[in-house]
Here is the input.
Amino acid sequence: MSLWERMFVFDDYGELLSLLHNSIIAGAVLGVVCGVISVFVTYRDLAFAVHGVSELSFAGAAGFLLLGANVVTGSLIGALLAALLIGLLGERARDRNSVIGVLMPFGLGLGVLFLALYKGRAANKFGLLTGQIVAVDASRLAVLSAIAAVVLAALAVLWRPLTFASLDPEVATARGVPLRLLGPTFMLLLGATVAAAIQVVGALLVLSVVCTPGVAATMVTARRGLATALSVLFATVSTVGGILLALGGTLPISPYITTLSFAIYLGCRVFAAVRGVRSRRGHRSDRHGPSSSLEDRLPLTGSVTGPRLHPSVVGFYAPPEAVSRTE
Here is the structure.
């Protein structure tokens, strides 16, 4: 069998679609929740934290697999413990990265130990690292949907203060935003999301659905609402598209998802580069033309101080006169 036939076979594809419809639904659910939280991961520069949480989540899943217990529960416990430690011990970026650097090898070592002691099917071991498409039954889909619903509901409640704290933490602190509470809370939500994503994508490649969509979306636009919508779209296309492609081949699901996610990122990067070139040319041609405001000349990817905060976000913690000045 050639490499192409291993990647794309599509024999009995209709029957496979009907048998694995839970996996497709799970991919769509994960696409939504990962896309929403990915924007905040980008704003808060937590890509390294995602990787650290995934290692402890992998260790928890492997430990519960060894004990014959529910793998999703173990993954969730490991992810939440890691997220809580990172959130409590690493308020500053330097401290946070140090904590993650300590947790990552410890979690990966524990996971490898548990898998070495496990005497069951090799597919179960491999699936924890790279994901597996047949692991999502009705009960696991219900658990993943419940986790996604809790995360999305919490993000909806925390949306404005979390956005304010993510984009301008110094001003947010001055306005009374409780950063010490928001940080660990967001890390717990991130841990739950990572634990859910690992069940489909695997521990090693979870960054492709939790980080890449947000990075790609914020390169295209600085508008928070549009960036979130695009991030959800990118994450959903990556997960659902990867699952649909994996159904037609004999390879693990993760290469398809990561390839689609990276292709979307490259497309957004090329789009941003082309737009930047056109913007600079337009500025040079208008150098002797009618003057325009600085706001009109700023690129969509942000202002000279980063993404712009909408007055409604500032107004959540600012007096009315401060809001009028931002408008």
Remarks:
- The radius of gyration is 22 Å.
